[in-house]
Amino acid sequence: xxxxxxxxxxxxxxxxxxxxxxxxxxxxxxxxxxxxxxxxxxxxxxxxxxxxxxxxxxxxxxxxxxxxxxxxxxxxxxxxxxxxxxxxxxxxxxxxxxxxxxxxxxxxxxxxxxxxxxxxxxxxxxxxxxxxxxxxxxxxxxxxxxxxxxxxxxxxxxxxxxxxxxxxxxxxxxxxxxxxxxxxxxxxxxxxxxxxxxxxxxxxxxxxxxxxxxxxxxxxxxxxxxxxxxxxxxxxxxxxxxxxxxxxxxxxxxxxxxxxxxxxxxxxxxxxxxxxxxxxxxxxxxxxxxxxxxxxxxxxxxxxxxxxxxxxxxxxxxxxxxxxxxxxxxxxxxxxxxxxxxxx
Length: 344
Known about the structure:
Blueprint: H1 7-13, H2 17-31, H3 33-40, H4 44-53, H5 77-89, H6 95-102, H7 108-117, H8 136-139, E1 147-154, H9 159-168, E2 173-179, E3 185-190, H10 195-211, E4 220-223, H11 227-230, H12 240-247, E5 251-254, H13 264-276, H14 285-301, H15 313-316, H16 322-329, E6 334-335, H17 336-343
Parallel strand pairs: 1-4, 3-6, 4-5
Antiparallel strand pairs: 1-2, 2-3
Helix pairs in contact: 2-3, 2-4, 3-4, 10-12
């Protein structure tokens, strides 16, 4: 009788199962299949299987793949080429995002498998997770242009972009404004942060909205407490930025100190742009601005927003035909220094 609980127990403990199977084959040839099966405490079918498979080499006694010969659900070569083409166009997008943007009729799991097989999986960025209150349902019922969130982004902490910025003299800072209800995005770029540029950025956006027929008196512009928005912290009068906002009969509101989650809508855009826009290669300042304008247009008119039921901002505007809604969202990014020089 086989010690240690029989053949299957020995297989689990064995470091080289081929040796045990070789012993089984030798016993079967010497004593017969059934005596060998009784001795090893396994089925005669198992003994016959390895006896017939043995061709004189240990390799013939190794485990063989159980993969089926046919996989009816496996993606075709054409389907894989389609997935790879989409990934090549937007290399920083994940499976779910590519499926949504390109309308791929395959599961997220299948798309990720294609990425993995072709070495296209990306390393995940470590994030400091904080549980937040989900305000999506509340914001969904707000009026359009009820609140516009503005903030700035430092671009010197993006290694791939910063090397290009040094060569082509690209901007160091990004001004961002976003409507909370629709998610509409407006951009501006500068070499430095200042109250003058913030004032100019806000004036440009509010003047555009008023020209397109929006009632700016109902708008609240929310910012943090940076000096580019409030000026000196001990100033006795409102900053030039606040005065500019109020000149359009809008309201300027600042968030409580260190309450960065109040700026979640604009911070989300900053995070998205790091992986969707700043991976690009820029040939010059003009090329950078053209690609920024294309991205803003894509964000406002094409890109589905998973936080807003897979709709883009132009779909969430309630009034007007497609042409008027497009004009409302079409305000291309500018270099604020150049805009300031034109004003003078």
